[in-house]
Amino acid sequence: MHTHIAGGTAGEIRMMEKEERTMVFIDLRNVTGVLKHYNAKGKVAFSHMTNLVNEERRLMAAYVFDGETNKKSKELHRTLKYEGFKILKGSYNVASNKQKEVDSLMVCEMVAHAFRDNYDTAIIISGDRDFCPAVKLIQSLGKKVEVAGFSVAMSGALCRECDVYHDLDTEELFFDVAPDYNVVYTGIPTEIGIWAGVDSTYVAGV
Question: Which fold would CATH assign to domain 20-202?
Fold first, then answer.
């Protein structure tokens, strides 16, 4: 994974992160849209992705935001919840085939936790430039914002606004094999399980 850090070397930043509290905020459809872009079927290793960007810092919570409510999406949400993720749902407009209120829900959650001093660093897994104003506001509160994502779904403006950008293009986060759902994961949410591999067929429109 290529990590780009603004204002200092990687070694300097790492020294300050030992007791750093983090929260991860995942824009689900932005991530699964990468599979759609390549017209691919597979599994997304959400837990591995979360552990990768969080490194060894103190993970306070990991949120997933989505708007879809069909049967396959509900199965996906149950799987992610079992893995230790907190699922927050907006709404879905069937006529336009678009989710609604998801971005605003994600912004509200990130900003609210920043105001309450519940984290030191917000890690946004999304490439949506609509989050730029929220990034600026969170930074004005003295918090750091990191962004992680894939080049095919990443806004250059969002990359420029964040303090650290994690390039996930070279990571093995999409798999063809099913995860082992018989594994019992512990230590959640501070230790997200190794796997949150999810069949992309669970995701409508992918």
Answer: Rossmann fold (3.40.50)
